[in-house]
Amino acid sequence: MKKILITGSLGQIGSELTLKLRKEYGISNVISTDIKSVDNEITGDGIFHILDVLDGDKIFEVSKKYGVDTIIHLAALLSANGEKNPKNTWNINMGSILNCLEVCRELNLKLFVPSSIAVFGNTTPKDNTPQNTIMRPNTMYGITKVSGELLCDYYFEKFGVDARGVRFPGLISYMTLPGGGTTDYAVEIYYKAICDKKYKCYIDENTYMDMMYMPDALNSIVSLMEADKGKLINRNAYNISSMSFSPKEIYSEIKKHIKDFEIEYEVDPVRQKIAESWPNSIDSSCAKDEWGFKFEYDLNKMTIDMIDKISKKIK
């Protein structure tokens, strides 16, 4: 990667990835975009454009103007919010992927499109979920992610578009607040533990889901996009994960550091149903074998860092 365009750069992943890539590739080589603008370091300290991902001509125009060689497409509606307006979720998620693929085809660019554990469903093996397995999701978000994987495969086979991606688990970050995903509780719980000493969890205490700390997620994007394309077999939908835990377990881990922290449960049936359709744990061996995926943070190390970073942030 030399010149990178990021869509959804003000979102949970995009905001941190933009800063990381500016540091590693140079401020002038990262073009951040989003459908809106806010007054922060993403929009103020580098190149930023307001960009609607449903406007394919604008994506083409900005990409050509800056001589982009890679698009990292992060703009999307997430799982829980996506269920509130399924039609809109389909239109935005699928329309934007198609626009990015077309621009990459026309300009011969590389493309990163994140998929998700939401591609899996109730009929998928729950434990150590294989790279290639049954995918019958029961959310519109999951349906768009499966369809996006297939669309990227099609553009690679038909037009040679170098499309790559990973199936992200729940992502945990201290920098950006959650954006409407089912796994958001794993971010909220840290803020509530530090600020209020209590948390009301919308997921049942014994529900396991795969998770990853944001620094590992960002490193995985860079590692995959810099990998030798000749070694990639499962090009655009690699299983990756660094930990799997339940609300009960993350609560116990936080309580080691915040002794008076308490939790109660008020299960949201919509998000609980989504969570129960996803795996308890997934197999990341293909990502490790094909491009050297690795992670640094487990639940203990992440908890120590989250508590430290959030405590400093809210002072």
Structure, explained:
The chain has 315 residues and is an alpha/beta fold. It folds into two domains: 4-169 and 213-239, NAD(P)-binding Rossmann-like Domain (Rossmann fold), CATH 3.40.50; 171-211 and 242-280 and 296-313, UDP-galactose 4-epimerase, domain 1 (Alpha-Beta Complex). The chain is 44% helix and 16% strand. It is built from twelve helices and 14 strands. The strands form four sheets. Strands 3-2-1-4-5-7 form a six-stranded parallel β-sheet, sandwiched between helices. Strands 6-8-12 form a three-stranded parallel β-sheet. Helix 5 (86-107) packs parallel to helix 6 (140-159) and helix 7 runs parallel beside helix 9 (247-255). It is globular. The mean pLDDT is 94.
Any chance you could write out the topology, listing elements then pairs?
Blueprint: E1 4-7, H1 12-25, E2 30-34, H2 41-44, E3 47-50, H3 56-65, E4 70-73, H4 79-82, H5 86-107, E5 110-112, E6 115-116, H6 140-159, E7 162-164, E8 166-168, E9 170-172, H7 185-195, E10 198-201, E11 209-213, H8 214-226, E12 238-239, E13 243-245, H9 247-255, E14 262-265, H10 269-277, H11 285-291, H12 299-313
